[in-house]
Amino acid sequence: MIIAFCVNTKNDAVLDPTCGTGTFLIRSYDRLKTLGTTRHQQLLAQIWGVDIAHFPAELATINLYRKNIEDYANFPHIIARDFFEVLPGHIHEFPAPKPGKGDKAIKVPMPQFQAAVGNFPFIRQLLIERQVPGYKQQIAQVLSNEWRKDYPDLFSNGDLKLSGQADIYAYMFFHTAAHVQDGGRLGFITSNSWLNTSYGYELQKFFLKNFRLIAIIESRSEAWFSDAAVNTIVTVLEKCKSKEARDATPTRFIQIKTPLAEAIPWEIQQADKRWGGLDKLVSQIDSLPAPAAGEILTYEDSTQRVRSRRQGDLLSELEGTGRTAKWGVFLRAPRVFFEMTKRLLASFTQLQEVAAIRRGYTAGINEFFYVSRETIEHWQIEPQFLKPVIRSPKEVSSIKLATGDVSHKILLCQTDKATLRKMKCLGILRYIRWGESRSTKEGKKWPEVPSVSGRPLWYNLGVREPGTILLQMITNDRFFAVYNPKHIHVDHNLFEVFPNDSADERGLLVYLNSTVFALIREVGSRVNLGDGAAKTEGIDWEQMPVPDSPTLKKLGAHWHLLERIMNRAMQPIAIEVRRPDRQTLDAAVMKTLGIDDQSLQEMLYEGITGLVEERIQLAQSRKRVRIQKVARDIEKLKDQIVEDLFPDGTKRFPDAFVDAKAMTNAEEVSVPDGTLRLGPSFFGRCEVVSDNGQRIELEDEDTAAFIVYSQRPNLHIIRIPASRAAVRRANTLYESYLQRTCKLVEAHIFERTLDHKLSELLTRQILEELGITLARK
């Protein structure tokens, strides 16, 4: 799909800067061939790949070479280097077609590319910096050389504006773009985090000022990567020097509503049909009506929803706010969101304009500062140094927070140890000394941990008054703002809200607990967490749309409606919106906000429940795929173990363990259908029991075990040696063989998995599948 957007003519030179084993390169080869480039040598000359890891780079070389193994006149252009060391126009050496004495490597200059495609790695640049000190500065120097002249907006006082928290792919967009000529296209899979994070602002501005932003594509029906705990998007760009052309571009925000296997159903082997179908999809998107200035157009069919916005409008909004624009809204928000916000904008402002927002305590060493009842009693910590604290939103089930919800207390002590001694506060003093003797797993003493060492007293968290309105950072499927009349302290997983005008408090709580705000909050939160939760950071809360102060005072008149639901447990949103008390509150809020429309309220409920279900199901689909993949890998491992250890099968009982002479006068015993096992013994006699309930009583346990070991499908008569000594000897030899086999299988599985429990489980499964049963220990 990405290549269909980006590789458009048979002469396009294609780059994958993080090519791995060459998947994008192979598909580009097929694409160019379909477009009319037929010679293997020419195809290889147009396709370039780079990867920092040598082994996948070698595999990419092999994968391209084997597209035509008879033609060895050209060598695949795969470079095994860090992409930031690969500069535009540099000359690279590749092996000669026929290596031999005197043959020299072929030197090839890297071209300017018409297309760059791929899957950028999901690695935070900060993590790489820890492994390679100075790496950030190296990257900054590369980007400075490439963009300081043509795009000075990226720099401030000589420094790169990109945040140090930026993922590595943010830097890769800039460096890749330097390799692409004007009119060339870029198409890459990345995490969707740049749609919301602070460093997303510089990326968005770079895209809008240097490219036609063709499309941002996301699937909400399936996880494209089951192993990566991130949500992903595809970004398609076309390098463009003309500001007029850029501003007039209709940027498409595309949500794919079905799995790609359904949206792109054509078989890979049918190349012409597959590429033709993909071209038709791209053409359909390109031919959608272009929005006018200030307009958002929506097109929707069974496979996709496309929202179009004029690129010039996106740039104006971005520069007007000076911060990351919430482009995820265009991908995720239902139609009712735009219907409502269009009516509400006149009386709305941002939360930070009507209230101060503060994050709860960041203690640094939770196990010291958050103390349980047992810890308090053990150290006899004085009560004046302890206050109730909520550590997690999971501890809160209703809107109104009560002291009964609290299971921990927070240690708040502003007094130095000498004064504590004079005050005879010996409990807290002993506890502080104990804390000073403790160390982290890395061996650093608690008072020396960076998050606490900067305080005048390492154990002093300061003095603060708790807020009466609390907001969660992480949301699953329950939406509510907490009313905190008892002024209970909170951890950093919650935010405290302090209205500028105390008269706005009730109205703000009414609004924040309405489903109108639940939808706004869901759309404005970050959904890049792979586990399905939505995350709302402090900056997100500050920018949340809320009514202005006069409107908040009007909403305060509905406090009695909020009180009706304040003390009951809040339900998942799909259940909550069906409750009459919830619907009454929402209707009153919407009417006060100027939306007196029952049908819009129903659309609101449909929109918010659909969004939350979509978010959670996406995470569940990733989990299902991961489980299925693990199951396939386990079956493959079991097959490999059996093939390695038992190429000729296992020894069969009784044939391999009984001397032929012992079977001369063998006794024949009829056995029932089904799996057989040893039953209970009574005074030396023993039963064999079938899984369908039939039983055979035998004279001794050895004979019973012999029958169990001899069973196999469709065998109804079992021959038993007349000599009980022969029976006992055969059982002993077989049991010894089984024990050795069991240990051998388990050892081989552990060698591959390093997991004792899994090794035991898979060993049992393998032996059962081989028809091996150990009747007795």
In short:
This protein is of the alpha+beta class. Helices cover about 40% and strands about 20% of the residues. The chain has 31 helices and 31 strands.
Polypeptide structure, described:
The chain has 777 residues and is of the alpha+beta class. The strands form 9 sheets. Strands 3-2-1-6-9-11-10-12-14-13 form a 10-stranded mixed beta sheet. It is globular, with a radius of gyration of 34 Å. The mean pLDDT is 89.
Mean pLDDT score: 89
The count of helical stretches stands at 31
Beta content: 15-25%
Instruction: Profile the largest sheet.
Output: 10 strands, mixed
Total DSSP E strands: 31
Structural class category:
alpha+beta
Residue stretches low in confidence (pLDDT < 50, at least 5 long) are none
Helical fraction: 40-55%
Shape: globular
Strand order of the largest sheet: 3-2-1-6-9-11-10-12-14-13
Distance between the termini: 58 Å
Radius of gyration: 34 Å
List key phrases describing it:
alpha+beta; ten-stranded mixed β-sheet; four-stranded antiparallel β-sheet; 42% helix
Task: Outline the secondary-structure elements.
Elements lengths: L1 H5 L7 E3 L6 H13 L4 H7 E4 L3 H12 L11 E3 L11 E4 L11 E4 L3 E7 L5 H7 L3 H13 L7 E2 L2 E2 L7 H11 L1 E12 L8 H11 E9 L12 E8 L3 H6 L1 E7 L3 H4 L7 H16 L9 E5 L3 E7 H11 L6 H5 L2 H10 L3 E3 H4 E5 L6 H4 E2 L1 H7 L6 E5 L17 E4 L5 H6 L3 H11 L13 H4 L15 E4 L1 E2 L6 E2 L5 E2 L3 E6 L5 H8 L2 H10 L9 E2 L2 H5 L2 E3 L1 H7 L3 H8 L6 H4 L3 H13 L5 H48 L21 E4 L5 E7 L2 E6 L4 E4 L2 H10 L6 E4 L3 H30 L2 H14 L8
Parallel strand pairs: 1-2, 1-6, 2-3, 6-9, 10-12, 18-23
Antiparallel strand pairs: 4-5, 7-8, 9-11, 10-11, 12-14, 13-14, 15-26, 16-24, 17-19, 18-19, 20-22, 20-24, 21-25, 27-31, 28-29, 29-30
